[in-house]
Each structure stands twice: as C-alpha cells, then as structure tokens.
C-alpha cells in the first residue's frame, strides 16, 4: 500500500506542470499554505539542527523526572524491626529474612501493629511510616529504634510485551525501573524487535519512544523511569526507508536501517539530478512531524555550497525527497497540490 501511495505521489507531481518556473521560499508563499505546514529554506544558519535530529521524541505530557521514591500500597508486606524489642519482631530476632511473613498492607491501605493498632501506609514512603511508628511507639518504649523495609512488593507493577523474548509483569521496587531496564528484564528484544518505536502507554496516552536514541546518543529523556500501571510494547521491526522522486537520474527507495544517510549522499547514489530537466533550486524534502504537522525543506543545490549543506542534512525514515523540473509552477502551489499524497504516505507509515 505504501509503495502504491508513493507511485501516486509521483504521478501527482508529474501532473503539476504549467510552464512556470519555481520560486524560492518567501513569507508570502508560506502564508498561502495551511497552518500545519511549515516550510524551511535550508541555509548555513539553520542546517546544524538537521544534522543529527532526534527520532521519536517524548511527548510533553510524559513525566520524565529522574526522581523515584517508592510509595507503599495494598498487598505490600512490611518487615518491621524494633531494635532491643524482640517481642515486637515477627519472627523474632535478627534472623528474619526478606521472605519471612511480615505485616501485610490491607485493601484499605492500613496494617495492624502491636500496641499502637492500625497504621496507614497507603501512598506513603517507607520513611513516612517509620517516623509514625517511632512516634507512636514512644508512648510505650523509651526512644524506640525502628527499621522498616518492604519484604514483598505486590502493589505496583508494569507490563512488558510485544517483540521481547519473555513478556512479563514486573514489580516496581525501591530501585527505579527504567524503560530499557524493563525491556532487558523481559529478556531483551527479539530478532524482529524495533527499539526506535517502543510504545509506552501511561493512562490513556501512548507515547512512541526511540530507545536507540538513548543507547547511541545518550538522550536520557528517551529512557524514562516507569510508573505504576505503565504498559511497554516493543513493535515489530519495519523497513526504514526514504523515497527519492522527481527529476533524479534514478528515482528509488533508500534504505536507512543501518546508517544515517545525508540528502547529498542519497542524491549522489541515485546518479544526481537529471541533466537538462531538473531545477537545482527545487530540491524538496517532505517530513511528517508531531500533531499532524508537515515540515517541508527546500535546498538550493545550484551551487557547490548547496551540495555541501546537503551533506549535513540527515534523512529520516518516511522522508519524501522530490526534485522539481524547470517547468513546474510556483513552489507553494506545488506543495499545496502534493501535500495530501505525502500525508497519506506518512499515515500508512505510522500504522505499520
């Protein structure tokens, strides 16, 4: 379906000729386009930001704080030790292990402790509960020394599935669990797993995250700490391609799976611009953005400077590169006519 859409895209562009020469991008041309279309003319002042662009950025609504503090919940089992008071330790003494029975937090978020009765633990930190126990026990024991740890973490968990070797449910503990840590704890990805589009569902919102961006370039925000109820799904690997169309010597699909390829590299590999027919000022790249935004980049390659700039523009999966002919109409009319087809290609990519 994707390739059919690309062919339709090429035919649509071929039909957009009326003998008028393409014009450079200007403010008047931009104003004639839809609000969700952003046109950028590539030059020395802005090329750096497109040299190594982030993939699959985190949504603004996703909490990416690096702070983590475990909060107790129903089902957790608390192990309480009061030093010097063996009668208050169950089982008695220092031989207790983390798997021994302790005080289970009930459905109402409380647990019962000798002398002081019901203690609220739900949604409180270990430090909070320790402080309350020490204060209340002080009425019966002089200067009580209290230690609390969670013997069984049963109240909070995340689900990891999709293209991992061992899909599972993982309990959250006092040690923060990151997205990459959860995937590793599920045995890592399968041969068909794609770390560039990992889906993180938090509540009703699903965010696509490029975990490869963390591994290769150190983007910490692409390895967030997981929260209770999160669902992590690793999708199947898909073909990572860009499409080169128009007045190119050999229009083709470019594979971006293994290496980053610049705009100039892609054009050169396909024989460059078609002699006598291509307008070197009209090299366009169409790229789908967030929230239905469409980014359109124009590169003027009529001089060596333009080709040099093109070596610093990295193509991204789903990009559509089109080189105009000298007979195309004004650039903004051309963009307006072909955008629906480009957007259809982008939608088909996002559904894969």
Description:
The chain has a 6-stranded mixed sheet, sandwiched between helices. Mean pLDDT is 82; it is low at 5-29 and 92-96. The chain contains 8 helices and 16 strands. By secondary structure, it is of the alpha+beta class. The chain has helices at 2-14, 27-31, 126-137, 179-185, 211-217, 263-269, 304-310, 331-350, and strands at residues 37-41, 77-82, 103-104, 110-113, 117-120, 146-152, 157-162, 168-171, 198-202, 205-209, 231-234, 241-246, 252-255, 278-288, 294-299, 320-325. It has 3 domains: 2-52 and 260-350, Outer membrane lipoprotein wza fold like, CATH 3.10.560.10; 77-152, wza like fold, CATH 3.30.1950.10; 157-234, Outer membrane lipoprotein wza fold like. α1 packs antiparallel against α8 (331-350). 22% of the residues lie in helices and 24% in strands.
List the helices and strands and how they pair.
Elements: H1 2-14, H2 27-31, E1 37-41, E2 77-82, E3 103-104, E4 110-113, E5 117-120, H3 126-137, E6 146-152, E7 157-162, E8 168-171, H4 179-185, E9 198-202, E10 205-209, H5 211-217, E11 231-234, E12 241-246, E13 252-255, H6 263-269, E14 278-288, E15 294-299, H7 304-310, E16 320-325, H8 331-350
What does the main sheet amount to?
A: 6 strands, mixed
| Number of helical regions | 8
What is the number of strand segments? Answer: 16
C-alpha termini separation: 11 Å
CA gyration radius, whole angstroms: 29 Å
**Overall 3D shape:** elongated
Low-confidence stretches: 5-29, 92-96
**CATH architecture title of the largest domain:** Roll
- Give the % helix: 10-25%
Q: Indicate the CATH topology of the largest domain.
A: Outer membrane lipoprotein wza fold like
What is the arithmetic mean of pLDDT? 82
Q: In what range is the share of β-strand residues? A: 15-25%
Adjacency order of strands in the biggest sheet: 1-15-14-16-12-13
Going by CATH, what is the homologous superfamily of the largest domain?
Outer membrane lipoprotein wza domain like
Structural class: alpha+beta
What is the count of distinct domains?
A: 3
CATH class descriptor name of the largest domain: Alpha Beta
**SSE arrangement, N to C:** HHEEEEEHEEEHEEHEEEHEEHEH
